[in-house]
Amino acid sequence: MKNQLLLTLSLLFSVLGLNAQYSPDILPGYEQMTIQMKPDYEGEVYCTLIRKPQPEPVNKAVLYIHGYNDYFFQSALGDSIQRYGYNFYALDLRKYGRSIRDHQQPTFCKSLDEYYADIDTALALIKKEGNDHIVLLAHSTGGLITPLYMDSRKNDAVESLILNSPFLDMNMSWFMEKVAIPTVSFLARFFPDWIVEKTGFSSYAESLLAEHKGEWTFNTLWKRPEGYPKKAAWLRAIHQGHKKVKKGLSLTCPVLVLSSDKSFTETAAWQEEYRNADIVLDVNDIQTLGLKLGTNVVRDTVANGMHDLILSAEPYRTIVYDKISHWLHN
After folding, report:
1. pLDDT at 268 (0 to 100)
2. Under 8 Å CB-to-CB from 148, ≥6 apart: which residues?
3. Residue 79 DSSP SS3
4. Average pLDDT of each block of 10 consecutive residues along the chain (330 residues)?
């Protein structure tokens, strides 16, 4: 009953945004639509749908959902999806990227299901635009949110999931994962605004940014190299999501779980291994817990892939695109 009520409310907010118009996006060749959602505990809330449609109408689409401390900037991904014959969409979730507003703490949530209305809205718009076959492609924290969303909503509009290094567990010590995080998660019910981590290392961002050691350019106000302060309520939201995954989800749609073939511990000092490994998550956790998502899960790894596999160095990111293309066409 509760899920039906949430779905009804979300679809109502979707309908309110259906008459909005697209405008040119910050990425050349892309369009965006800003959608006002129901206000939350911080005030007005928005999400942003970005698209790159096919020149000729088709009825299939990929919707990309970004990770934590992230937003959609990977235009090469959208360009590739379009070449595969799909309409491409991306969603900047509330309080991320294009959707951030001055009165909000970027990336903050108290529960991961706050994002479900954003996804409902995006899917309603994508379907309204003539897409009957939709694939969700999600990275990192987006790769945690989307399976939980699908398990909750039982949404048959989505044909399959592609998860790019999904955030299915913490990459921390036994004490942190088994003692410290559950304790903070419990205390978050009483002290939700308690800042449990101010900032992190910037090594991952440096491995990506062209001005440092990488190949890419992005807005460092929206994707901060050192990250955003993390509050106890956010950590509790992630912890609750991880507990659901470990208990097991009941997805029946096909799920592709992709990760690098190895992890490497991130530190403050630069190391060349950062270019060829996941320095954010434990790939063994990803591959093991990926089986908990449903009954039709395919797991695969990419040698020398980075955390965001599509930002890996060549020739490894071409391998990622080949795997995505094969999935979409089979």
Report:
1. 84
2. 112, 113, 241, 244, 245, 249
3. helix
4. 46 48 96 98 98 91 98 97 96 98 97 97 96 97 98 88 98 94 96 94 95 96 96 98 98 97 92 96 98 97 98 97 96
Pairing mode, strands 133-139 and 158-164: parallel
Half-sphere exposure in the Cβ direction for 292 (13 Å, CA): 18
92 phi-psi bin (left φ>0, alpha ψ -120 to 50, beta other): beta
Predicted TM-score of the model (pTM)? 0.93
pLDDT number for residue 101: 98
Q: In angstroms, what CA-CA distances link 47 with 16, 17, 95, 210, 221?
A: 13, 10, 8, 28, 17
Question: Would you say 165 and 309 are in contact if contact means Cβ atoms under 8 Å apart?
Answer: yes
Q: b/e for 203-242, b at 16 or more Cβ within 10 A?
A: bbbebbbeeeebebebeeebbbbebbbbbbbbbbbbbebb
Q: Which residues, at least 6 apart from 165, have a Cβ–Cβ distance to it below 8 Å?
A: 139, 140, 143, 258, 259, 260, 278, 280, 281, 283, 286, 305, 307, 308, 309
